[in-house]
Design a protein that fits this description.
Blueprint (H helix, E strand, L loop, with lengths): L1 E6 L1 E2 L2 E2 L2 H4 L4 E13 L4 E9 L12 E10 L2 E10 L2 E11 L7 E7 L1 E2 L2 E2 L2 H5 L3 E12 L4 E9 L13 E9 L2 E10 L2 E11 L1
């Protein structure tokens, strides 16, 4: 996915709003995927921003234990751990998708499960729907806890949700122009596991 990234922290310290406009933006290809980290001796979720012209060289330090915390319009935020020398610091990336409008991220979404049961690829891939994607804080007031919720709203004459929203939504991976978002959908008071396969349109 071709994006511009602004790093919102320096050595773990938040950059003040009045300085954000002067912070260098880095344009490159974003990936988020599981990676075996030899230094930490475990699997981690790793976000990288690479230059597509210089043999995949990292433009900024990768984020370890990376988590997409919100998606809105054509932007989203990823938080994680950045290694600077031998030290690890908290870092947040403000990510803007190049080529998307500020009205929302236009996507093609497919549900990979039906009431918790995994579907064959040919079946879920043929039932894609065009939508606008957003993800951010929501709430499950019945259980008194905050959670991250993902929603896909229709375009044109369909203005409401295209699919049941996902609670406890997590972006599992991002590659090329695709991502997978996993979470739970509520159907008749039961919470079923669900995964969305999302393509940038």
């Amino acid at each position: 996915m071709r994006v511009e990234v602004t790093r919102l922290r320096e050595d773990g310290r938040i950059i003040p709003n009045w300085r954000i406009g002067t912070v260098k933006k880095h344009a490159g290809l974003l990936t988020l995927q599981e990676h075996c980290d030899d230094r930490l001796h475990r699997a981690v979720s790793r976000a990288t921003l690479v230059d597509r012209h210089i043999s995949g060289e990292d433009l900024v330090s990768p984020l370890i234990d990376a988590t997409v915390i919100w998606i809105k319009y054509n932007t989203y935020a990823i938080t994680g751990t950045e290694q600077v020398g031998e030290q690890d610091f908290k870092q947040t990336w403000h990510v803007e998708i190049i080529g998307q409008t500020r009205h929302g991220i236009t996507v093609s979404v497919a549900q990979m499960r039906n009431e918790g049961v995994a579907l064959p690829r040919a079946e879920w891939d043929s039932k894609r729907k065009l939508a606008i994607l957003s993800m951010g804080p929501g709430g499950d007031w019945q259980h008194s806890r905050a959670e991250r919720v993902a929603v896909v709203n229709g375009m044109g004459p369909i203005v409401g949700p295209v699919f049941t929203s996902l609670s406890d939504a997590t972006v599992i991976w991002i590659r090329d122009n695709a991502m997978a978002i996993s979470g739970f959908e509520r159907i008749l008071q039961a919470d079923y596991a669900q995964t969305w396969h999302v393509l940038l349109v």
